[in-house]
Every structure is written in structure tokens, then in C-alpha cells.
Design a protein that fits this description.
Blueprint (H helix, E strand, L loop, with lengths): L3 H11 L4 H8 L3 H8 L7 H11 L35 E3 L10 E6 L9 H15 L7 E5 L3 H13 L2 E7 L4 H9 L3 E5 L5 H18 L3 E2 L8 H17 L6 E5 L4 H13 L4 E7 L34 E5 L1 H15 L5 H17 L4 E6 L18
Parallel strand pairs: 2-10, 3-4, 3-6, 4-5, 7-8, 7-10, 8-9
Antiparallel strand pairs: 1-2
The chain binds pyridoxal-5'-phosphate.
């Protein structure tokens, strides 16, 4: 299957439309059409949607017809609230960690997102959907079982939108995460993790459900099953990646927490390039997709010991297992060699991306995400002196 640029050209020729005619029909110049077809220029998404419409190409999954959900970040305006600044995080090519014998690796740095993680996107979209559908009203109490970042995101949105928010989390998550949730004004309920993270997450969920039975105002967004989670990655994160990366994307990998990131981004990237290699990444001691045993591990946010409903299990072509040591060493390298302050699961993703880059070889492009900032890991082994 050809890259989408080749597909545009093939369809145009098949329909007997010249570059000049297509330029007229789409309101662009012939030279721009030529540059897009030859990979010299990147179409904006609005232009890409338009070209697909004219040439009757179904490049995107059906539900990705336009850019809905929330306003893109515009740095030259005053935002009505912090929520207007969500998204549009930078993408950075790894320059010192990459190798000339491997594909280039480009990372989307979600540590710079509002709230310091990718989860502000999903929190916002789940709340927006809840409001739209009438499940959330001014009296709603938002209660979510989460191992961390989703709680911070929901606490942030709850603060701006004025909802009482309760976050239920394992006591094994870093202290910074608990403090951040409280600092946004949300309540924290801790559940003991005695070494089986899957059992602990199940108990967090059971506690939330008990609260919902006892109080009709309780709404549980349920990031593991809520379709608004992967949807925001289809409508935003994936489209941002396409706009930012010039040329074809040959590989993508992501750790699996709720599965929202890999499914949402993966579905759009695969729609554009069915030959893309997509890897699901798992911690060594929670490699449930690979059929491994579930224990406890340090790669917070992924490897929760369950197979989430929001994971599209047909989207990845392989599974990559990363040890805690490799994840931490890679996260440290990201700070020390690339100036990228990011969390442990970012190390997981990049460790896998570097392997994928070696497999695909020079001239190819691998994309991954850095889900959060390092600044919520001060109390974890990420910040222990490796030489001490
Ligand atoms: C630090 C971190 N990394 C990765 C993920 C995984 O993302 P997803 O839930 O979309 O699979 C999460 C999710 O909370 C996270 O907090």
C-alpha cells in the first residue's frame, strides 16, 4: 500500500484530473499540489481533508471527518481558560540518541501539555462528552479510579469547570501525583498495592462503583472503557502528528495503559499507511498482552495488569517488552542527551522506538510519545543517583 501522497497522485491520474485542475478545485497553486505529491511540502490537515473529498479517497477512519472537539492552541491570543491551551505539543527529532544506521525517531513531548501529561486531553474530552450527553450536570461529582495522570487531568478540568472531583489511586503511585491531584482541589482516596497492580486497580474501580451506587450524582468517566478517550487521540493527537511530521511515518509504538493512545493514534496512522509497523509496549513484569505474569513495576501509567476495552487489539503488529532498568536508563538519557525531562514510561516508549528504528533502518521514520513530565517522579528511582 502506497503512502498517502502516492495515493493522492494515483487517484488524481485515475480520475483524469491534472495538477493544475486540482489546484483550481482546491484553491491552491499547482506548485503546492506538486510539492505535496512529491513529499516536498506537507499539506495542512484542512487541505488534506479537502483533497480527499475532491478525489473521493477515504484516508481517515469514518469518524475523523473534520477537526472537532476543542480549539487548537493559538499562542498569539489570550486563552479564555487554560483548557484552550491543551494540545499542540512539540515534536522533536532525537539527535543524540538516534543512530545513522537506524530510522529517525521523532517524539511528541506531552510533558509540555497543560497539566504536564497526555492525559489532560482525555480528561477534557471525557468531561466534554459527559456534559454533551447530559451525564454530567452542575451537581455531578466526578470519581475516577486511576494510577495517576488521568487523575491529575480530571482534577484540573474539575477545577476549571467547577466539579467536585474524587480520585481513587493505588498507594504505589508517586507521592507527587497524589499531591498534584490535591493541589488542584480534588480529593484523593488511596488503595493499598500489595504487589499485584492488577488486583489493586480492580479494587480502585470497585470502590468507585460503590460510591456511584451510594450517590446518584457520582459520574465515573472510566478511561479504560470510555470511547471519548481514544477518540481525542484520533481527532487531535494523531492529526497533530500528521501535520507536524513531514513525509511518511513507518513505525509507531506506545505503552499500553488504557490503550487510548496506541488505538487512537494507531488507527489514524494505519489508515494512512496500512504497512506501518505498530508496536504495543509492555513492562517486563506486566506483559499481559504477551501472556506474561503480573507483578509490580516502575513504569507508572502503563502495564496496569488488565486488557483494557479501549485497546484495539488489531492495531499493533508486535509487542515489545521493556525492563524497568531500560525504561529508567532511557528516560535519564532523554534528559541528559536530548534535554527532554520526561517520566519513566517515556523511557519505555523511546527504548522500544529505538529498537523499532534499528529494525526499520535508515531513511525511515518512527514516532512515539513522551506521555508526561519528569517533575512528578522526584520520589521515584528515576531521580536516584545511579552512581550512588
Ligand atoms: C505516564 C503515562 N504513560 C503512558 C500512559 C498510557 O496511555 P494510555 O492510557 O493512553 O494507554 C499513561 C496513561 O495514563 C501514563 O500516565
Amino acid at each position: 500500500m502506497p503512502d498517502y501522497r502516492r495515493l493522492l497522485r494515483e487517484k488524481r491520474i485515475e480520475k483524469g484530473i491534472s495538477q493544475y485542475q486540482l489546484a483550481e478545485m482546491s484553491g491552491m497553486t499547482q506548485s503546492h499540489i506538486n510539492k505535496i505529491e512529491n513529499g516536498i511540502a506537507n499539506p495542512s490537515l484542512d487541505i488534506l481533508f479537502k483533497l480527499c473529498e475532491i478525489l473521493e479517497i477515504r484516508l481517515f477512519p469514518d469518524e475523523v471527518k473534520s477537526r472537532p472537539v476543542y480549539t487548537p492552541r493559538v499562542t498569539s491570543m489570550v486563552c479564555e481558560s487554560i483548557l484552550d491551551a491543551i494540545g499542540y505539543t512539540p515534536m522533536i527529532r532525537l539527535s543524540r540518541m538516534g543512530s545513522p544506521d537506524a530510522a529517525q525517531v521523532i517524539v511528541k513531548y506531552e510533558g509540555l501539555n497543560v497539566g504536564g501529561s497526555i492525559k489532560t486531553r482525555t480528561a477534557y474530552n471525557m468531561i466534554l462528552e459527559g456534559e454533551r450527553s447530559g451525564k454530567i450536570t452542575s451537581e455531578t461529582i466526578i470519581v475516577e479510579p486511576t494510577s495517576g495522570n488521568q487523575g491529575i487531568g480530571l482534577a484540573l478540568i474539575g477545577a476549571v469547570r467547577g466539579y467536585r472531583t474524587v480520585i481513587i489511586m493505588p498507594d504505589s503511585v508517586s507521592e507527587e501525583r497524589r499531591l498534584l491531584v490535591s493541589h488542584y482541589g480534588a480529593e484523593v482516596v488511596l488503595i493499598h498495592d500489595d504487589g499485584d497492580i492488577g488486583a489493586c486497580i480492580a479494587e480502585c474501580l470497585a470502590t468507585a462503583k460503590r460510591m456511584a451506587r451510594e450517590n446518584p450524582h457520582v459520574y465515573i468517566p472510566q478511561q479504560f472503557t470510555n470511547p471519548a478517550n481514544p477518540m481525542v487521540h484520533k481527532h487531535h493527537t494523531a492529526l497533530e502528528i500528521l501535520e507536524q511530521v513531514a513525509g511518511p511515518i513507518d513505525g509507531f509504538c506506545s505503552g499500553v495503559g488504557t490503550g487510548g493512545t496506541i488505538s487512537g493514534i494507531g488507527e489514524v496512522l494505519r489508515a494512512l499507511n496500512p504497512g506501518i509497523e505498530i508496536w504495543a509496549v509492555e513492562p517486563e513484569h506486566a506483559a499481559i498482552l504477551a501472556g506474561g505474569n503480573i507483578g509490580t513495576h516502575l513504569q507508572m501509567g502503563i502495564g496496569d495488569g488488565l486488557i483494557p476495552d479501549n485497546l484495539n487489539r488489531t492495531i499493533y503488529s508486535d509487542i515489545c517488552i521493556v525492563t524497568d532498568e531500560e525504561a529508567i536508563a532511557t528516560a535519564r538519557d532523554l534528559a541528559r542527551k536530548e534535554g527532554l525531562m520526561c517520566g519513566i514510561s517515556s523511557g519505555t516508549n523511546v527504548a522500544a522506538a529505538l529498537r523499532l528504528a534499528r529494525k526499520l533502518g535508515p531513511g525511515k521514520t518512527v514516532v512515539t510519545v513522551l506521555p508526561d513530565t519528569a517533575e512528578r517522579y522526584f520520589s521515584t528511582p528515576l531521580f536516584e543517583d545511579p552512581k550512588a
